[in-house]
């Protein structure tokens, strides 16, 4: 196995650097620290919001950009705790409103989560919202939906959470709408994401490559789900987790161990072992 000269590592979060208990392992923390000591940036990309990513970035000691909402909103954390936008690709508001109304009126048990820049809004709290709050460490802001939407906010992502069967039905209903500027995809079996059609983790990779003034061949990308496929395929060395979907594994250059056996750390360790040849 020949690994190209890596100058940047981009990694998904859930199912990748977090184990099934939603925790970072000591092994992962150690290899990320070694990576940074060697001068190689480690950048997180996720369907999560910047605020939900920041706690993980802080635990890893990262000061690198965060590619949130699957690349739809890339920010640079500042010393003051704020986020400096580097790139933004929001949804078309009319199309966002269409899918929100569809879900609210036809799928009342599905949680509708609206993300605008760094903030998370919900029209109603339920067990799905509470579960997401535990996972992300954030608190959703409950709003009166009609008043909130009347302001035509800049929306970067809508996340629908529910039972898998309901999410499948919702996905089918959305497919029947005429939507020219938007795209939907699963980030988990019961999570349906809705973003601008231009948004992808490949786009995030492209923006980060430009930011660091390197080329895609110098990037290692690690992921586990279908929303990671595009960046895994675009990277010089694409790594799929052992727990990844088949689509991820098919596009990867290498399949590592699963997220409960430090698969991401194993992949990063190979980069560290290759550093003398890369210098």
UniProtKB/TrEMBL annotation:
PROSITE patterns: COF_1 (PS01228). It comes from Enterococcus diestrammenae. InterPro entries: Cof, HAD-like_sf, HAD-SF_hydro_IIB, HAD_sf. This is Haloacid dehalogenase. Pfam families: Hydrolase_3. Gene3D superfamilies: 3.30.1240.10, HAD superfamily/HAD-like (3.40.50.1000).
């Amino acid at each position: 196995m020949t690994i190209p000269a890596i100058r940047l590592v981009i990694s998904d979060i859930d199912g990748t650097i977090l184990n099934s208990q939603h925790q970072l392992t000591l092994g992962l923390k150690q290899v990320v620290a070694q990576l940074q000591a060697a001068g190689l940036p480690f950048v997180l990309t996720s369907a999560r919001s910047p605020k939900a990513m920041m706690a993980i970035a802080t635990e890893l000691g990262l000061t690198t950009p965060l590619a949130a909402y699957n690349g739809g909103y890339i920010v640079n954390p500042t010393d003051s705790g704020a986020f400096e936008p580097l790139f933004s690709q929001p949804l078309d508001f009319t199309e966002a409103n269409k899918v929100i109304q569809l879900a609210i009126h036809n799928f009342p048990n599905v949680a509708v989560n609206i993300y605008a820049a760094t903030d998370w809004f919900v029209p109603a709290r339920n067990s799905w919202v509470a579960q997401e709050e535990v996972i992300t460490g954030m608190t959703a802001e409950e709003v009166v939906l009609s008043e909130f939407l009347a302001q035509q906010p800049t929306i970067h992502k809508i996340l629908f959470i529910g039972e898998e069967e309901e999410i499948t039905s919702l996905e089918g209903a959305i497919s029947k709408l005429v939507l020219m500027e938007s795209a939907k995809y699963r980030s988990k079996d019961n999570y349906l994401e809705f973003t601008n059609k231009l948004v992808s983790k490949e786009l995030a990779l492209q923006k980060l490559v430009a930011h660091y003034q390197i080329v895609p061949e110098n990037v290692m990308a690690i992921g586990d789900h279908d929303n990671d496929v595009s960046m895994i395929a675009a990277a010089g060395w694409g790594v799929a987790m052992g727990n990844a979907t088949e689509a991820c594994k098919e596009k990867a250059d290498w399949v590592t161990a699963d997220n409960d056996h430090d698969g991401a750390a194993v992949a990063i360790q190979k980069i560290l072992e290759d550093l003398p040849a890369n210098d």
